[in-house]
Design brief:
The complex is a heterodimer of chains A (about 280) and B (about 550). Chain A has helices at about 1-10, 10-35, 65-100, 105-120, 120-135, 135-165, 165-175, 180-185, 190-215, 225-235, 240-270. By secondary structure, chain A is an all-alpha fold. The longest helix of chain A is centred in the first third of the chain and has 37 residues, at about 65-100. Chain A is elongated. Chain B is α/β, with parallel strands linked by helices and about 550 residues long. Chain B is built from 20 helices and 20 strands. A 6-stranded mixed sheet of chain B has the order 6-7-8-3-9-10, sandwiched between helices. In chain B, helix 14 (about 385-395) runs parallel beside helix 16 (about 430-440) and helix 15 (about 400-415) crosses helix 16 (about 430-440). The longest helix of chain B is centred in the middle third of the chain and has 18 residues, at about 190-210. Chain B is globular, with a radius of gyration of 26 Å. The two termini of chain B are about 15 Å apart. Classes of the chains: A mainly alpha (about 280), B alpha/beta (about 550). At the A-B interface, helix 7 of A face helix 13, strand 16 and helix 14 of B.
Chain lengths: ~280, ~550
């Protein structure tokens, strides 16, 4: 583990990304207790108060505290990013794993299904799913997961296929192990690092997709979100540009931090890059 | 031998390794000369620095990690280490050229053979297009490529391995260099192909008076082709001399040990009681591979195993010998049902393994265990050694504590410390990993052991140790073994019976002594005739020092 940390730390950008990400997570967890009962939708003061006044980041067009929105939005973004990624990873690993390990007709069938999902433009597909199922946290998570699992499935299929023919897996089969045992104890552990790296980048994409959906108003109306804040403030761009810029920068910084961490994980976990 | 000044004069060459390597220098203080008209073989095991030395001559050391730090390399009087890059480019191809081990990767797959050779001519000569093509066709004919005029337009993948290597040789020789460096040029080839390439090398070298620096690990090849031999160990030349001197009266202990480790071609069979019960019988086994197919393309049908019959008696070792693509590995995989054959039967103690359901098969698998070829790929990199050996018995219901104690005992049986049980595969050398692979196979107490090229990835001295271990364990545990190999020397040492395979068929099957004494099938004879160094007898084993192959 210490060797892994050392390799990760060697990538300074990744380390910086990790610090930023940890800060965002800390704010998302601890933040709401700072505002006690006041939720993000509570009217706090006069509308359009500029930042650095009574309210650190000002208020929006309805007089809601912009900082509260940002903090609650962080919760939403991270929650949806993580949940959608976990769901997509589960779906992708199961599909790709079965297809790659067993090959043949099952592989054909599963891969055709995967390709079908890939041919539909993913954002339109996500909009469609949310629109049909009516917007809520759960449907947004489901929609994002449904559009983002195919790359994971293809990756896992490739890894499983090559591992399946490696001699150590053949040796396991020849020893009389059951398929479940071979897959869970010998094949899967050998591709966990690729799954983690791809998964970490999926979180970033999921956060972007969530922001885009809520920008269009296709998100849970009872939950504050960065995309919603940008979307709601865009009509007042000339009068109060910071209302768009602040949540926009939050999205940018978060996604960038996650991408940097993902790159760092790749450097640290990818055996081909180690000495 | 050398009448004029040498074409290559290496003096005190030292190449430094990067700080994280296991030793400070790849090549330490190496001095050797090569005359204009001789073949100098540089022999050594992996990691001896022979390839690094060869690359230093071409100034092709992998940058920036390897650096020549001392000495000089005089190529026709010019010091390669001190030349400008421009001068060096002039020399490469024109004065010195290189032939690599794997022609498939050394040739560019998207360009035709002709275009690749022509590029060399276009860079270094002022010949016009038509003259260039004519020269290429002549050269391709000189390396005995059939239909040279058509081959100019062929792509590398359309040629066989031997043809590709011939094309590489043509490319290396097209500018008539004075020095050719050949880095294991026949290692990737089958023996019958290798024989032709070596003969061609000899002939062209003699006819064109070229100095050849020939890197190899194979003493058989040395015996066939060398004028002089340099033996390298840990980056140093430990012995250098004429072929006769080094091969027949080696002075340095390392050379002696290396030569003693080369398996002899004298069969080494034991007596198997003719009434010993048959433990494994294979009947009319057939397996065909279908490849390709898809839009508008026909499927290719490749018969890999064609109606193979064989039987292994209790305590017997049956060797399956053949070249690459002969189906010998597929046969092994069909027997253990890692691959499902289409027809035939695999009978073990009255049970046909081919007819078993997957669930029943799992219980029967313990009776046949496999030792795989690749010591790096056959152990799960994330599993500790002890666990890796014990897992088989655990799967078959042996309590964990008992399985682990069996694993410790097996580690000692294969000559490893029981404390290594807590370590991971990457901490072991190739030979040690192969020992671990053997321990894992034995953990299930199989009746039949299948060894699929278990020593072909190992250096010759390690190979000898692993072979001894296998033979020792087999005798002690009264194991029956199916031993797959492409190396007739290894087969001679280990096997009691031999089956020669070609294109999926067994063409000859019999006792090892009989087949080695008088091979009856033409293919078997061709195979035996192609074993490198077959006329050379070990000084340590042969009574009389018979002369080395006098061609």
């Amino acid at each position: 583990m210490s060797a892994f940390l050392r390799r990760f730390m060697r990538n300074q950008a990744a380390f910086a990304g990790l610090l930023v990400l940890l800060a965002i997570v800390a704010v998302a967890i601890a933040g709401p207790s700072l505002f006690l009962h006041a939720g993000p939708f509570e009217l706090a003061g006069p509308p359009f108060s500029p930042p650095f006044g009574r309210y650190p980041l000002g208020t929006d067009m309805l007089g809601r505290n912009e900082l509260a929105g940002l903090v609650y939005g962080a919760r939403t973004s991270l929650l949806i990013g993580l949940a959608a990624t976990l769901f997509a990873t589960l779906l992708g690993v199961v599909t790709g794993g079965l297809a790659g390990y067993y090959g043949g007709a099952l592989d054909h069938a599963l891969m055709r299904v995967t390709e079908m999902f890939q041919t539909i433009p993913s954002f339109l597909f996500a909009i469609l799913v949310v629109a049909i199922l009516s917007p809520s946290i759960r449907t947004v998570i489901l929609a994002i997961a449904i559009v983002s699992w195919p790359p994971m499935a293809r990756l896992v299929r490739g890894e499983f296929r090559s591992l399946r023919n490696r001699e150590f897996v053949q040796a396991c089969i020849a020893m009389g192990m059951s398929d479940t045992r071979v897959i869970l104890l010998h094949v899967l552990p050998n591709c966990v690092s690729s799954i983690i790296v791809t998964g970490s980048l999926l979180v970033a994409t999921a956060i972007l997709t969530e922001s885009a959906l809520s920008f269009l108003g296709l998100s849970d109306p009872n939950v504050m979100s960065w995309g919603f804040m940008v979307g709601a403030a865009r009509d007042f761009l000339q009068r109060a540009w910071w209302l768009c810029a602040i949540p926009g920068v939050a999205i940018l910084v978060t996604v960038l931090a996650i991408n940097l961490v993902g790159d760092g994980l790749n450097d640290a976990l990818n055996p081909r890059l180690r000495h | 031998m050398a009448t004029s000044s040498p074409i290559l004069d290496v003096r005190g060459l030292t190449v430094d390794l990067p700080p994280w390597a296991d030793r400070p220098q790849a090549v330490s203080d190496v001095s050797l000369t090569l005359a204009r008209d001789e073949i100098l073989c540089v022999v050594g095991e992996s990691g001896s620095g022979k390839s690094v030395m060869a690359r230093a001559v071409m100034r092709l050391l992998p940058q920036p990690h390897l650096r020549a730090s001392a000495g000089s390399i005089l190529l026709d009087g010019e010091d390669v280490l001190r030349l400008s890059d421009a001068r060096m480019r002039e020399l490469r191809g024109r004065r010195v050229s290189m032939i690599f081990q794997e022609p498939m990767t050394a040739l560019n797959p998207v360009k035709t053979i002709g275009a690749q050779i022509e590029e060399v001519l276009a860079l270094h000569t002022t010949l016009r297009k038509r003259e260039r093509v004519q020269r290429i066709v002549e050269m391709l004919a000189a390396v005995r490529l059939p239909n040279a005029a058509h081959l100019v337009d062929a792509y590398p993948h359309q040629l066989s391995g031997g043809q590709r290597q011939r094309a590489m040789i043509a490319m290396a020789l097209i500018l008539e260099p004075a020095l050719v460096i050949a880095d294991e040029p026949t290692t990737a080839l089958d023996v019958t192909t290798q024989k032709g390439i070596l003969a061609l090398f000899r002939e062209i070298q003699r006819a064109r008076h070229i100095g050849v620096l020939f890197i190899t690990h194979d003493f058989g090849v040395v015996a066939d082709i060398a004028d002089r031999v340099a033996v390298m160990q840990h980056g140093r030349v430990v012995e250098i001399g004429t072929r006769e001197a080094v091969l027949n009266a080696p002075a340095h202990p390392y050379t002696q040990a290396l030569i003693a480790a080369v398996p002899s071609l004298e069969p080494h069979a034991r007596r198997i009681a003719p009434d010993a019960p048959v433990v494994l019988r294979v009947e009319r086994l057939e397996k065909t591979y279908h490849s390709g197919g898809g839009f508008g393309r026909g499927r290719r049908v490749v018969p890999a195993v064609r109606s193979v019959d064989l039987a292994i008696r209790h305590g017997e070792t049956l060797g399956v010998v053949g070249e690459s693509g002969s189906g010998k590995s597929t046969l092994a995989r069909c027997i253990v049902r890692l691959v499902d054959a289409e027809r035939g039967a695999v009978l073990m103690s009255g049970v046909d393994l081919m007819r078993l359901s997957r669930r029943e098969l799992r219980k029967h698998r313990r009776q046949i265990q496999t030792v795989f070829q690749d010591p790096y790929g056959s152990l799960d990199p994330r599993s500790r050694i002890g666990r890796l050996i014990a897992e088989g018995p655990i799967v078959h219901g042996v309590p964990e504590a008992e399985a682990m104690s069996r694993a410790y005992a097996l580690l000692e049986l294969v000559g490893l410390d029981r404390r290594s049980a807590d370590r991971f595969p990457h901490e072991f050398s190739g030979g040690q990993r192969q020992r671990i692979g053997i321990a894992r196979a034995l953990a299930l107490e199989p009746a039949v052991l299948i060894a699929d090229e278990p020593v072909s990835a190992l250096d010759v001295s390690v190979q000898a140790q692993v072979l001894r271990l296998l033979a020792d364990i087999r005798d002690r545990l009264k194991l029956s073994m199916l031993f797959i190999t492409h190396d007739l020397r290894v087969a001679a040492q280990v096997c009691d019976t031999i089956a020669v395979m070609r294109a999926g068929e067994i063409v000859e099957y019999g006792a090892v002594g009989d087949i080695f004494a008088s091979p009856s099938h033409p293919y078997t004879r061709e195979l035996f005739g192609a074993v490198p160094g077959r006329h050379w007898r070990h000084p340590t084993r042969a009574e009389s020092h018979s002369p080395v192959n006098p061609t």
